[in-house]
Design goal:
Number of strands: 15
Distance between the termini: 29 Å
Shape: globular
Strand content: 15-25%
Strand order of the largest sheet: 8-9-10-11-5-12
Radius of gyration: 23 Å
Number of domains: 2
Largest sheet: 6 strands, antiparallel
Order of helices and strands: HHHEEEEHEEEHEEEEHEEEEHHH
Length: 348
């Protein structure tokens, strides 16, 4: 799975966690001190990373627009964690061969993450998590890309100038590729070996055959192993190279709650499941013990009353993501997903 696809999936999933009061425009956000501070932090991070430089747009070149995206991020308890303002390039305006070439970057599959967690539970290892702040801003660009100055942060007296990007910006088509190439180079330099069948999985063997395993999902690093000293060295090296947040023990990852104790490692999507029910107006529906009625058979129902195709697909997609921790749903999901093209009330 490419990081650009993974980022899109994550964005779709995070819609469920977004507070209804999130601003949609810069004009709304600038009136709120919290959102204004979030935008200031984003610009400060971009400038601290030496992402761009102010210049005059060369002849025969064009600039790409940018926009602000606002999102209230919640923790595993549903409480406000932080207010996030992200400056995003309008990548849909880019042209292949001019503004970008390669775009693909791998992202860890849940199969891989579950396998790492299973190994850690079996060997009684702790699993930790690091978050890279503004990860895509670290990726270096090979192409000349120019963007307009962000709304609210134009340079006085030089509003006619543009920003030439030295490093990637969120929204650029090549941003995931540039970021992954950067962090992969860093891992190789630190002595990690990449798994040949899973390019987001890195393993390092230390003294006395001590081992450390790292899994990358876009800007989240999940790691475990047999030596806490290797962990400390790894975190120190990462913080020297990137702006990192040490999240400690893995607790909440892509909508999945993680509990680690002496008995093992437990995964749950209780919060996500409740939000899916609320999203589709089913929070007051009666509960059942089986994922589907035993012996039930579905078939094409050409004469049946058709339902909203978009809503049906959203329901199936939400259930697919829920199957990360509920494999007992897989048979039912596989059955209803056969009728995505023309679902009827029977399938709903």
């Amino acid at each position: 799975m490419g990081a650009n696809i993974a980022e899109e999936e994550e964005t779709q999933n995070m819609v469920l966690y977004t507070t209804a009061g999130d601003p949609h425009t810069y004009e709304e956000a600038e009136k709120d001190q919290q959102w204004r501070a979030a935008m200031d932090n984003e610009i400060a991070a971009i400038e601290r990373n030496d992402t761009w430089e102010l210049t005059v747009l060369p002849n025969n070149s064009r600039k790409i627009g940018v926009k602000w995206i606002y999102k209230t991020k919640l923790n595993e308890k549903g409480e406000v964690d932080k207010y996030k303002a992200r400056l995003v390039a309008k990548g849909y305006a880019q042209q292949h061969g001019i503004d970008y070439t390669e775009v693909f970057a791998p992202a860890a599959r849940w199969d891989t993450i579950r396998m790492v967690l299973a190994i850690a539970a079996q060997r009684k290892w702790k699993v930790y998590q690091l978050d890279v702040k503004s990860a895509f801003l670290h990726g270096k660009l090979d192409e000349d890309v120019y963007v307009e100055q962000p709304l609210g942060y134009e340079k006085k007296g030089e509003e006619h100038k543009v920003l030439k990007l030295k490093k990637a910006l969120y929204g650029l088509k090549q941003a995931p590729r540039a970021w992954f190439s950067r962090i992969e180079t860093c891992f190789v330099k630190e002595g990690f070996a990449r798994c040949p069948s899973e390019h987001t999985l890195f393993v390092k063997i230390g003294e006395d055959k001590k081992i450390m395993i790292v899994c990358i999902y876009v800007d989240d690093l999940v790691f475990t192993g047999s030596d806490e000293r290797m962990f400390a060295d790894f975190k120190a090296s990462m913080k020297r190279e990137f702006d990192m947040t040490d999240l400690g023990k893995m607790k909440f990852f892509l909508g999945v709650e993680v509990v680690q104790n002496d008995e093992g490692i437990y995964l749950s999507q209780r919060k996500y499941a409740l939000e899916v029910l609320e999203r589709f107006g089913l929070e007051k529906a009666n509960s059942v013990r089986n994922p589907m009625i035993p012996g039930m058979k579905l078939m094409r129902n050409e004469d049946g009353e058709q339902v909203d195709v978009t809503q049906y697909k959203q329901m199936v997609g939400s259930l697919m993501y829920l199957s990360i921790t509920r494999p007992d749903l897989m048979f039912g999901i596989g059955l209803i997903s056969r009728y995505m093209e023309k679902p009827t009330t029977l399938h709903m």
